[in-house]
Amino acid sequence: MFDFSGFSAALALTLILSVNGAFTEGDCEVCVSFLGRFYQSLKDNDVKFNSADIEGALVKTCKNSKGKENRLCYYIGATSDAATKILNEISKPMSYHVPVEKICEKLKKKDGQICELRYDKEVDLSTVDLKKLKVKDLKKILEEWGEMCKGCMEKLDFIRKIKELMPKFAPNAAKARTEF
User: Fold this and answer.
1) Which of 28, 44, 122, 145 could disulfide-pair with 169, CB 3.0 to 4.6 Å?
2) How far apart are CA 58 and CA 127, in angstroms?
3) Angle, nearest 10°, between helix axes 155-169 and 135-144?
4) How far apart are CA 19 and CA 146, in angstroms?
5) Does residue 6 sit in helix, strand or coil?
6) Pick from 174, 125, 135: nearest CA to 158
7) What is the tens place of the pLDDT at every residue in 133-175?
8) Is 131 helix (H, G, I), strand (E, B) or coil?
9) What dihedral do alpha carbons 101, 72, 30, 13 form, nearest 10°?
10) How far apart are CA 19 and CA 14, in angstroms?
11) What Rg do the C-alpha atoms of the chain give, in angstroms?
């Protein structure tokens, strides 16, 4: 009654895989990158590959994380204010040296938000026209540098502060800019 051709079977298999949570290139960008660096740091620091030591190191690493990586730590329960804890979903497979892509794939099944995290686009300070950036983006630059612009009311105030701090935080970009 059913006549499946090779194409139909391939299409059905593709649909099944996409529904089951397998991810494609670019999915889980923050998870794969963060856990990849974390795994490498464990190897570099000769940490014992058991669940307890991995969890302890992960919580310690997450204390210093910022931005999207801190949000990932919140989702997996490695921050003090997290509502759930799924650290064992990372530590146990990592103790068996499971690839981080597979770990993130399993995490995606537990919480889809984990794989929705994306890094913000990097701004090339040596070529960007600061006047064309939004105030939100200018504030983000200062935040990444650990600086604030107290008393800044207008866009030009933020631009002035960035230009003032650029030689300290982005010396190569400061030298490349022709505005100075």
Assistant:
1) 145
2) 37
3) 30
4) 41
5) helix
6) 135
7) 999 999 989 988 989 999 999 999 999 999 999 999 988 888 8
8) helix
9) 40
10) 9
11) 22
Name the nearest CA neighbour of 161 among 37, 19, 146.
Answer: 146
- For tokens 């022709």, the residue is 178
177, 140, 144: which is closest to 158 by C-alpha? 140
pTM for the predicted model, two decimal places: 0.67
Distance CA 35, CA 57 (A): 12
Residues found in the chain: 180
Residue with tokens 């919580």: 59
Token code pair at residue 100: 């981080």
Q: Which two tokens stand for residue 98?
A: 């499971």
Distances (CA, A) of 136 to 40, 75, 92, 111, 139: 34, 25, 40, 29, 5
Phi then psi for residue 91, to 5 deg, are: -65, -40
